[in-house]
Write a structure and sequence with these properties.
alpha+beta; Beta-Lactamase; 4 domains; 13 helices
């Protein structure tokens, strides 16, 4: 609030000092204008006596000078006073305000009309020039602000940068910014805008504008895409409506950039964390490979020894160690595969293949596990050719078959096949296991998840996660259809090979 001063007298009241200052300046300009008219009168009447026509010309020059240097009020008062001096000193009878010749009345009023018109035109031109200069200055400040926000240090708080840059660009004593997304308020000087928080909250929610002419406080909503995302408060701002709207647009873009930069930073941190985790997992897994290879070599050599060299319980213990080495080796292999997939360290080597050949190759890899189990295969050679990395797709099919073997009764059959879909080929594996509840179906593709009721089963919990990532790398999806007690059907789609590649 502007400072207040008290006027003397029994009826004294408080008047804003700014109003008194303006009144004093206006009074001073009027006195200077009257002094100039008095000087012209003295020179033309006493120093260098001239006729009425010459005197009128000098009066007009003086009024134009006053209108150009001052304003409309000063020039209007000067025009009336000049007309009176013109009449009193230059129209006979001299020394009176009467006019002997009626034609002089016409000249006198023509002089007054010309003076007033010239004053108005000059004041209007001055006002327009001032407005043009103000708009130019506003544009320069907006450009400076936009450049500063564009080059702002993204490692610092963008909202704080906006507040500081707005205050600096427009030379404002106090600026505050409320970010509706984070619920935080940023300001330059708290003591310059007391109790502004409630107004800023209201502006950001109701999208209303608050303006206090006495204190020069403006609180306005900040919109992006028609929706309020915050509010801006400024004290001492005298901006035109277009400049204010441009300023708000720059603030909105700055806040949106801050949100985008924050999202990018979070994604970058997550990516680096995932890469670090994958690198460490890959390194640890490789460290396990060397001792596992030695253990496997020893257990294989001992199990191949003649029966008389080992006792029965010794052979059983070695067999347990051999199975444990196989399981641990599989776990390490899958960990390496998953680490490379998540770290983006693998590339697809896509070529054209028959779906039936992919299924046959996967079944050959699983022969040791599928012996004695009923496997129903349904994949004809007339299916469309697919554009895939054969080694990886065979790995996916093997994972799904291995999963079906684990969760199906030993006497039940497992179905493996392929069928055509909408511009795709779909490969499926069906088991007759206990099924999967609807709540668990999205979770079974997570790493290390094996189902709440199946914790006793052997496995790493990474097979389905690896399979899903491989299929996604091909631009396709892996999904499951299941009901408790009715078994499960795992399906994944494969892209059909382009005709140019198939020929």
């Amino acid at each position: 609030m502007a400072s207040l001063v008290s006027s003397a007298g029994p009826d004294s009241h408080l008047i804003p000092r700014s109003i008194l200052r303006k009144s004093t300046h206006l009074t001073g300009r009027i006195l200077i204008a009257l002094g100039l008219i008095a000087t012209v009168t003295f020179i033309c009447f006493r120093v260098i006596p001239v006729n009425a026509t010459t005197a009128g010309f000098f009066y007009l020059v003086a009024i134009l000078t006053i209108a150009t240097a001052g304003g409309l009020v000063e020039s209007t008062i000067a025009s009336v006073v000049a007309m009176l001096c013109f009449n009193y000193f230059f129209f006979p009878p001299i020394g009176t305000f009467t006019v002997a010749d009626p034609q002089n009345w016409v000249a006198l009023f023509a002089f007054l009309a010309t003076s007033l018109t010239a004053s108005q035109l000059s004041a209007r031109a001055k006002r327009r020039t001032k407005e043009v200069l103000e708009r130019q200055r506003e544009m320069e400040r907006l450009y400076s602000l936009s450049r500063a926000l564009l080059l702002a240090d993204t490692t610092r708080s963008m909202a704080k940068e906006i507040v500081q840059q707005v205050a600096q660009a427009f030379e404002l004593p106090a600026v505050a910014l409320y970010d509706r997304n984070s619920g935080q308020m940023y300001r330059t000087e708290a003591e310059d805008m007391p109790d502004v928080e409630a107004k800023m909250h209201d502006a950001s929610i109701r999208s209303t504008l608050f303006r206090d002419e006495k204190s020069g406080l403006v609180v306005t909503p900040v919109r992006l895409g028609g929706q309020p995302i915050g509010s801006l408060a400024m004290r001492g701002a005298s901006l035109s409506d277009p400049a204010l709207q441009s300023l708000l647009n720059l603030v909105a873009i700055g806040l949106e950039r801050a949100l985008s930069q924050e999202a990018v930073n979070r994604a970058e941190v997550a990516r680096r964390s995932e890469e670090l985790k994958s690198t460490l997992l890959d390194a640890i897994a490789h460290e396990f490979k060397t001792p596992l290879t030695s253990i496997k070599a020893v257990t294989t050599d001992l199990l191949s020894a003649p029966p008389e060299e080992l006792q029965q319980h010794q052979r059983e213990l070695i067999g347990i160690a051999d199975e444990g080495a196989d399981r641990l080796s599989k776990l390490v292999t899958e960990a390496i595969q998953l680490a490379r997939i998540e770290g983006g360290q693998f590339r697809l080597n896509q070529e054209v293949y028959f779906p039936s050949s992919l299924i046959s190759a996967a079944l050959r890899q699983m022969k040791a596990l599928t012996d004695g189990r009923e496997i129903d295969v349904s994949a004809t050679d007339d299916l469309p050719l697919v554009w895939v990395d054969a080694e990886l797709i065979q790995m996916v099919i093997a994972h799904l078959i291995d999963n079906a073997l684990k969760y199906s009764p030993p006497v039940s059959a497992i179905s493996v096949g392929a069928r055509t879909g909408e511009n795709k080929v779909i490969i499926y594996v069906i088991d007759r296991g206990p099924g999967i509840t609807e709540d668990e179906q999205p979770r079974i593709f997570e790493k290390f998840y094996r189902g709440s009721k199946e914790q006793s089963l052997k496995g790493t919990g990474m097979g389905l996660a690896i399979a899903r990532e491989i299929i996604r790398a091909h631009g396709e999806e892996l999904w499951v259809t299941s009901r408790p007690g009715e078994g499960s059907e795992f399906c994944f789609s494969l892209p059909i090979a382009p005709r140019s590649s198939a020929q």
